[in-house]
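Recall that a protein's primary structure is simply its ordered list of amino acids. Everything else, from secondary elements to tertiary packing, is in principle encoded there. The following example makes that idea concrete.
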Amino acid sequence: MPVSPTSSRQRAPLMGRRILVVEDEYFLADDIGNALRTLGAEIAGPVGHIEDAVEMLHNGGALDAAVLDVNIHAEPIFPIARELRARHVPFVFTTGYDKISIETEFQDVPLWEKPIDVVAMVQNLASLVGDQPAKGGAAAP
């Protein structure tokens, strides 16, 4: 019996999606990547330096969404967030700081404070991506 695209999307809501992960804590980046893969995503990164994130944006292919740590080795992630927003790529922030650390222009972006519930955060990201056509990965079934 054929599987409907809707049921496939429910089991793997990020199938065919390419997600950028920018996180300088290795184990958290690994956990986030694994949770995203469980939902069918292809991971761009993870990267732990702003320069690597810039490289992924400019030379790493299309992206469907991103998970951004607010502070990468004492550098703010906001220039990356601005470029993603300009490209209409949804993203969430993770941080060990409170909401006051987020620049005003990004107050509408979901913020996950560490220690984060990785599964809930990834599901939140999947809901932001929703039914948008995949840009970065292979077409979803």
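The longest helix spans residues 26-38. The radius of gyration is 14 Å.
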